[in-house]
Amino acid sequence: MKSQDILSVVISVIIIIAVAILQKQSKVVAALISTMPVRAGLAIWIVYAATNGNKEDVTQFSLSVAYSLIPTFLFAVAAWLAARAGMKLGGILISGYTTWALIAGTIFLARKFLGLG
Predict the structure, then answer these.
(1) Where are the alpha helices (DSSP H) in the chain?
(2) Which end of the chain has fewer beta carbons closer than 10 Å to its terminal beta carbon, N or C?
(3) Are 19 and 30 in contact (CB under 8 A)?
């Protein structure tokens, strides 16, 4: 197992524990911690290391990360709207993941067939 893999798991566990503890004191702080760009940063590091810092590869990957934030943001919006509508956890998650999948698929197809980055 590579050090990046171990680090990713350790950081994920720390974030889960921090959110579980901090959500009692501050929902805002817990939400900020839960959305920290840890995985994106680790992924950029992995791509950078794998390509020996090739500017073009790292730039292209970073653009893909930026595009990927759009469906993730809309997941959160859909989950919030579902929670506000009084849905239970299953409905909230289904709403969020369905939105995420539709938007992620749309972005993927647009990038592939329209040549967007």
Answers:
(1) 3-22, 27-34, 38-50, 55-84, 89-114
(2) N
(3) yes
Burial of 62 (0-12, 13-18, 19+ CB in 10 A): middle
The DSSP 8-state label assigned to residue 85 in this structure reads T
Note the pLDDT tens digit of each residue in 89-99: 999 999 999 99
Closest CA to 59 of 48, 68, 73: 48
Tokens 């698929």 -> residue: 105
| Total Cβ atoms within 10 A of residue 79 | 21
- Identify the burial level of 90 via C-beta atoms within 10 angstroms of its C-beta, where 0-12 means exposed, 13-18 middle and 19 or more buried: exposed
With beta carbons less than 8 A apart as the criterion, state whether 83 and 92 touch: yes
